[in-house]
Amino acid sequence: MKENLNLVYDAFLRSFKRNTDVPHSILLGAGASISSGIQSAYGCIWEWKKDIYLSKNINASDYFKNYKEDSVRKSIQKWLDSQGEFPELDSNEEYSFFAEKAYPISDDRRKYFLSLIENKEPYIGYKLLCLLAEHNIIKSVWTTNFDGLIVRSAHQNKLTPIEINLDNIDRIYRNQSNKELLAISFHGDYKFSSLKNTVEELDSKNEVFIEHLSNYHLDKNLIIIGYSGRDRSLINRIPRCSASEVLEESLKTDGFH
């Protein structure tokens, strides 16, 4: 039984090289998709803040549309703080709170995320991941993302992705062939009916996913890339995966879904 490790990048590379004979899986957060042109969770939060501000202040100038500018963010945050009803700046509650505040209707949230990923193509990291899968080093990809980039990349690289999400959760128990790559979406997929963004939705995650995450990695190494850890129901169970090697590529500002 291996201990859980938080490795710096160069140590991770050395360890990975020594363990190419061991099956691995990947847990991807939104930080893994930024290089493919998809906005981070931090960017989403500020876009939602901007939208709320402009909806409440309809005579505000176009200046406030530039929500990526520090001066604009400071002005918007000052207004939010003055209202007494919004989470503190950079608190863990911001993502779920502002997702639901900006778009109370779940289908509107689904359309918002769809707009972020339209016409986006998987960057080289996804292609390298598929190459590792082709050589049976990577057996599955678990993700909190909605973007579908791993599935698209698998198709482009002649792998057969087995999509498992909130709408077909029973498929997680199927047998897996060498030419298949399991693609498990914890929070749903924009192509299907169910997504999880809000506090209530994230806290009610199907226990089948969480239990299988632990059991699946009894004999596999788990590598975590670009995950912010906002979903506590998931992150609290990761240490129970007894054979995990953890690479934290990005944390707070790089989470998206």
Helix/strand-derived category reads: alpha/beta
> If strands are numbered along the chain, what order do they take across the biggest sheet?
4-5-3-2-6
User: What's the number of structural domains?
Assistant: 2
Average pLDDT: 80
> What portion of the residues fall into strands of 2 or more residues?
5-15%
Specify the overall morphology: elongated
CATH class division of the largest domain: Alpha Beta
CATH hierarchy: architecture of the largest domain: 3-Layer(aba) Sandwich
How far is the N terminus from the C terminus? Answer: 31 Å
Number of strands: 7
CATH topology of the largest domain: Rossmann fold
Any low-confidence stretches, pLDDT <50, length ≥5? Answer: 190-195, 239-257
| Helix/strand order | EHEHHHHHEHEEHHEHE
CATH homologous superfamily assignment of the largest domain: TPP-binding domain
Which percent bin holds the helix content?
25-40%
Q: Total helix count? A: 10
Largest sheet: 5 strands, parallel
Radius of gyration in whole Å, from Cα? 19 Å
